[in-house]
Amino acid sequence: MKKQKHERTAQVIDGAPLEVNGLYKKYDKKSDYAVKNISFTCKRGEILGILGANGAGKSTTLKCITGMIPLSEGKITIAGYDIEKNPVEAKRRFSFVTDNHTVFQKMTGTQYLSFMADVYGVPTEERQAKYESLEKVFRLGDSVKKLISGYSHGMKQKICMMGSLMHDPELWILDEPMLGLDPRTQNAVISFMRDYVKNGKTILFSSHNLDIVRRICDRTIIIASGEIVTEIDLKNESRDNDEIIDAYYDCEKAENE
Length: 257
Ligand code: ATP
Known about the structure:
- With 257 residues, the protein is α/β, with parallel strands linked by helices.
- The chain has helices spanning 58-65, 87-92, 109-119, 124-138, 153-165, 183-198, 210-216, 241-256; strands spanning 18-25, 35-42, 47-52, 73-78, 81-82, 94-97, 171-175, 202-207, 219-224, 227-232.
- It has a domain at 1-88 and 210-257: 3-Layer(aba) Sandwich (Rossmann fold), CATH 3.40.50.300.
- The chain is built from 8 helices and 10 strands.
């Protein structure tokens, strides 16, 4: 009998880089929802910002999107793949840089980059060129050969960002990515981001820093008390930062009344 050939081919699904539909999340032992009825779409080639005060619900939204915590209600798809029903295919398509730099302290930077390349199946012959292009942005220098446990906060941030980019994710998700980076690196990262989206990739960027979001994002969603209160194009927004901040804190106050 002729043996049937089994090939593991991923089903190709065409979808927006990210779609969030009716997301609700309530943590155990809490009576209120941390996020309520969050819906938005990230379009290919854009940098979308999520802006909100401390406790507004940014990290909760990102943790749900990336499958780190279960949703209470709603649906999230990444390039068409449902994060809860098809997590492996969804996770192949994005990288997440958290704000707490959970990296493997007992590895050197080089070992960590190689580990990330292994996880995402980056071909061996492509890794050196990839590392060299990222080194031009992040400039870790010889520290890359040293143990991560001895890195400063900013160096840990850099190695996390480099690791997350080894496989050129379609969607790059960042939670407060500029904290701890020196001004030269911030500028280099911003210009890298611009080039990244020009090449058809997408970035979702969360921060409570209005200046940074205004500088970087093409479109911005403002979250207050777990809900989207508005969406604005900060680059073409004529109000100054103080007026915008007042407007979104007013929304937050109204939500809580
Ligand atoms: P920050 O800018 O301070 O990081 P944030 O906008 O990211 O804030 P979240 O961390 O998403 O806000 O928090 C939203 C709400 O959910 C807050 O009321 C917070 O207390 C609550 N929360 C967050 N994590 C947990 C958790 N693990 N267990 C219970 N409640 C949580």
